[in-house]
Design goal:
The structure is a homodimer. Chain A is α+β, with helices and mostly antiparallel strands and about 325 residues long. Helices cover about 30% and strands about 20% of the residues of chain A. At the A-B interface, strand 1, strand 2, helix 2, strand 3 and strand 4 of A face strand 1, strand 2, helix 2, strand 3 and strand 4 of B. Strand 1 of chain A pairs antiparallel with strand 2 of chain B.
Chain lengths: ~325, ~325
């Protein structure tokens, strides 16, 4: 059976009632129980063949779409509360496949504390897409974290090693929710998740904040080393340029970072201080590399600090467009 | 210039800061000022060539995507607060066109009291799509309106005439926000907007509520009469089966409806009581027609009440799929 909106709606109507819902199920809009704290929201589109392989298991597709969106809540220190799922797929999609996408999404959302409360189904040509909007809350009245809030004198913390996520990790993203909250409570001001590559995202953070961000070490994931064995690229390049790590980057005072790492950052046992934030004249703003460990670094980047001139991972961009020199 | 995510982001960064935003602009997720009342949310996908003509003016495309989503807030008596815009478009889209879509969307959202606070850009093959998530609030603690809350003895109110929206009205949807709020305050229990055709949506309302809904008159829009001149169909059929009217259907006590209509329903000068809600055995549940005015009705439906057996307007469905007999 192919895409039939009415039949899918009838199936969705059999789902358990989501906990946050106060109003009627299946209504035009979802009315939720009041929340304390400030509302936080974000949205992400996940397209078959762009963000996941065309032959991906449909449940993984759905689960990834949810997890990468909720990672943006983690990067805002917010607690997930609810999700909205909007599925677009072509007429020829099998109902079994469509149900599996939605089921994967709703289960992952539920597991992450953000049950699916509303959605939309659209039959349209072109690759299937699941758009996820995540709602959360941020307690207290402190200025929320932002990628524009790195301050000179802080250190840069990364919640885990990067690179090589394409092997499998990009399908099983674990949003660093507890770590994000702990970092913010500990005094982190800048916070973001690494989705388009550690280099590109750190460079964005530096530019948004108007600082020079100096990367002193790059924790390399074993998947990056594995990828390097066949790619002809260095493990370091994979760690800096592959996307979809969904680790958090945070800037915070050095004492706070040390305390956090000593006590253990929840859900992020491999967290480490990886660099420093420096005030800078406009021409110096951006990401710089000051990598001491020569075994990770076979080229001129060891004679640091040098400006990062790598590329990031932009979904759907041609290879030519992926190169983004920061001149 | 074609789709370039970084360049579009740079342009979006020049937009005025949205009023509800507390956190940083351009962050992974948007942190908003706390709201009073219960959170309300909904999402809708609008696809080029499916929900709008392929040659639509891009600003109209953006504006429609926003208005049809916010109409779902109106159907929940909610006040709009913020929107999230997620644009997917193929590489070959011109930047001028993409900007115009986003600009049309953000202006319409701002005008409807729901500034765009966050979003996503994705380059992917297939027809362009704008997904809009709308956030709003519902004051008080009363049970929210739902399409499953029609009760026997109530009357059915419609905020305006239907049919023929394809001529132009579907591009300039006016969400019945003030009317929705007034209806709910006056005691309406069931509420929904007419998006897939008056007949189909009223039938859905009846089935969700487990009642027999008897339509006694159908206010026919002049666009429906105009369409009938060339379509070979009756104006009544257009009024019952065309989609995207985005008028509200509400059920409420007869005295409350009379009072509302006497005082004038805000933003809905042509509102009228169009039918009644009856308790029904299971086999009788659904929409029935009891149309008295013979000039609107050249066929056997005048010998009412007869069960409605028309079709609705399902975007993207083939003509064969659009026919949904209610057996």
């Amino acid at each position: 059976m192919t895409f039939d909106e009415a039949r899918l709606h009838a199936w969705i109507a059999t789902w358990a009632r989501p906990a946050p819902l106060v109003g009627s199920s299946g209504h035009d809009a979802a009315v939720l129980a009041p929340t304390s704290g400030r509302p936080v929201c974000c949205t992400d589109q996940t397209v078959l063949g762009v963000h996941v392989e065309v032959d991906v298991a449909p449940r993984r597709f759905g689960a990834k779409a949810v997890a990468r969106t909720i990672s943006d809540l983690a990067a805002t220190a917010a607690r997930p509360h609810a999700t909205l799922l909007a599925l677009r797929a072509p007429q020829e999609s099998s109902e079994t496949w469509l149900r599996a996408v939605l089921d994967g999404a709703r289960r992952r959302a539920e597991a992450l504390g953000a049950p699916a409360v509303a959605g939309d189904l659209t039959c349209a040509p072109g690759p299937a897409q699941l758009s996820v909007t995540a709602l959360g809350t941020l307690p207290g009245r402190r200025t929320p974290p932002g990628r524009d809030r790195a301050r000179a004198g802080q250190v840069l913390l990364l919640t885990g090693p990067c690179g090589g996520s394409r092997a499998r990790r990009h399908l099983v993203i674990e949003p660093r929710l507890a770590a994000g909250e702990a970092l913010w409570r500990a005094g982190a001001t800048a916070l973001m998740d690494v989705s388009d590559g550690l280099g590109l995202d750190a460079d964005r953070l530096a530019r948004a904040s108007g600082v020079r961000l100096v990367l002193e070490q790059v924790p390399i994931h074993r998947d990056a080393r594995a990828a390097a064995r066949t790619s002809g690229r260095e493990p370091l390049d994979h760690a800096l340029e592959d996307g979809e790590d969904h680790e958090l980057l945070a800037t915070l005072p050095v004492a706070a970072a040390r305390r956090l790492l000593r006590d253990g950052l929840p859900g992020a046992p491999a967290a480490a201080v990886v660099g420093r934030v420096e005030g800078a004249r406009r021409a110096q703003v951006g990401l710089w590399l000051d990598l001491a460990a020569p075994e990770e670094c076979s080229d001129e980047r060891a004679r640091a600090p040098v400006r990062w001139r790598g590329r990031g991972w932009i979904h759907g961009a041609s290879d030519a467009d992926r190169s983004r020199p920061n001149g």
